[in-house]
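debug: dumping io for the single-chain case to check the tokenizer round-trip. Nothing else runs in this session.
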Amino acid sequence: MYIFESEQLLEQLEQLMLDSEKADGFAKETIDEIFRIMHTIKGSSAMMMLNAVSNLAHCVEDLFYFLRNGEYDGTKSSYIADLVFESIDFIKEEIVKIRSGNYIEGDSSDLISRINEFINALKSDTSVAPNHEEKIKANLNHQDTSQIEINIDVPKHTYKAILRFEEDCEMENIRAYAVVHHLQDVASEINHVPEDLSVNECSEDIKKNGFLVVFRSDLDYDRIQEILLQTIFLKDLTLTELDSQEFDSFSNMKNFTRNISD
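debug: decoded output
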């Protein structure tokens, strides 16, 4: 399943890159889609413990995160394309080795270093909108110290998400695990039902009732929704922002229920 999904994503990525080369630049929608693809490959590869692929995908994801959030003017698109195509070739070679059954992990460190050097060069040449950490620091300068002590470590939002996967996608428990894995980068206090996703039998529970997860995050509703909608084989997503009392009730696993429609 990992091989199938990765090859599908790489095929989409190659077509996006070819279209961008013809257009001599990256459209905003293309940057968003490439970011989504690399985010997905990063997560599924990490879940498979394929660190060379996961780390490389993460690095390319960082590049397109910068392009998406900075003031990218379309320059250097040819070099960006070269880096992405080289990354595609590396991942394809890893997949060939996995399929052969004689997998020895490749070394993506040189390519990762070159991409990171390029990101740093872009940052030095481009005016970038303040990132999240910078905004926090700016806000702290205008806040009372006592207020900082109360709020600095408490995420702003609490969410409840119910995900339903497409019929016959199989391995629902692994897909649910991937959702949790992706959320770990942006969320805390993550609780879910079924609780033990290592048990294959819980796939039937997920098929019947969906996968329920509650968590805290500093990200706003639209960004959380965007991340969850990137889930492979997602059929339906219900995302609700909870108040503190509702979250405390859900986060107590003893109060979790299989009847997630309540």
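debug: round-trip ok. The chain has two domains: 2-125, 151-255.
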